[in-house]
């Protein structure tokens, strides 16, 4: 059955509603010491603000071993009525103290976690793929084949999209419409975006945020180029809050408060980008049952 797997169970895609397609309520990494997203009360307030503006779902891309706090996600979803999709998978090696205990059984770990997680998150490197990325993506492809789960990809600085597709959808034979390429706003190369879009993958743009403000002003130019080229059905938007300092600056509510009306005024496509496209991107014909 084609459903979206949330932390409270499977739902029909049409129930996902207005969706923040890439964000983090909880996240911990040695790469950002002292910037942990680990305050459950603050996360609850952020989701309440988002829900008050009409937000109905959040896809949390925090993968295995980075402080996902699954039990807190369940509590927040129940308290607010907002659907939350969690992730398994792995980020880049720098985000872990050690992976020795799971490195040789990554696919098994991902498959087990996909009984409650709704996507697999993996990461490329800057303008390429190293051994860690290749090993992780091979495990993600195996987990996809066993479960049907979609795969979201952190593109470092918005680069390396072609290498990712060559590996995941070429050699590893993951259907391209099951792949979501993230952070494309960080390299606002519209020719590259159109080329990637022609593959059929979903394209995720983040922000605005303090971290990415240098390219935030190009967001609507990038979206316009893709829409004009006929790729509106592949576009996703998310806030991608990754540190405590960035929470609510401007926060996930900005997507609805500012970006949604601008999208509607400029393109008439707010419902498609915030509702229709996430329903397609994150739904799957699951091969394993939800926990």
Automatic annotation (TrEMBL):
<feature type="binding site">
    <location>
        <position position="24"/>
    </location>
    <ligand>
        <name>Zn(2+) 1</name>
    </ligand>
</feature>
<feature type="binding site" description="via carbamate group">
    <location>
        <position position="121"/>
    </location>
    <ligand>
        <name>Zn(2+) 2</name>
    </ligand>
</feature>
<keyword id="KW-0479">Metal-binding</keyword>
<feature type="binding site" description="via carbamate group">
    <location>
        <position position="121"/>
    </location>
    <ligand>
        <name>Zn(2+) 1</name>
    </ligand>
</feature>
<dbReference type="GO" id="GO:0008270">
    <property type="term" value="F:zinc ion binding"/>
</dbReference>
<comment type="similarity">
    <text>Belongs to the metallo-dependent hydrolases superfamily. Phosphotriesterase family.</text>
</comment>
<keyword id="KW-0378">Hydrolase</keyword>
<feature type="binding site">
    <location>
        <position position="22"/>
    </location>
    <ligand>
        <name>Zn(2+) 1</name>
    </ligand>
</feature>
<dbReference type="InterPro" id="IPR032466">
    <property type="entry name" value="Metal_Hydrolase"/>
</dbReference>
<dbReference type="GO" id="GO:0016787">
    <property type="term" value="F:hydrolase activity"/>
</dbReference>
<feature type="binding site">
    <location>
        <position position="154"/>
    </location>
    <ligand>
        <name>Zn(2+) 2</name>
    </ligand>
</feature>
<feature type="modified residue" description="N6-carboxylysine">
    <location>
        <position position="121"/>
    </location>
</feature>
<protein>
    <submittedName>
        <fullName>Phosphotriesterase-related protein</fullName>
    </submittedName>
</protein>
<feature type="binding site">
    <location>
        <position position="240"/>
    </location>
    <ligand>
        <name>Zn(2+) 1</name>
    </ligand>
</feature>
<dbReference type="Pfam" id="PF02126">
    <property type="entry name" value="PTE"/>
</dbReference>
<feature type="binding site">
    <location>
        <position position="183"/>
    </location>
    <ligand>
        <name>Zn(2+) 2</name>
    </ligand>
</feature>
<dbReference type="InterPro" id="IPR001559">
    <property type="entry name" value="Phosphotriesterase"/>
</dbReference>
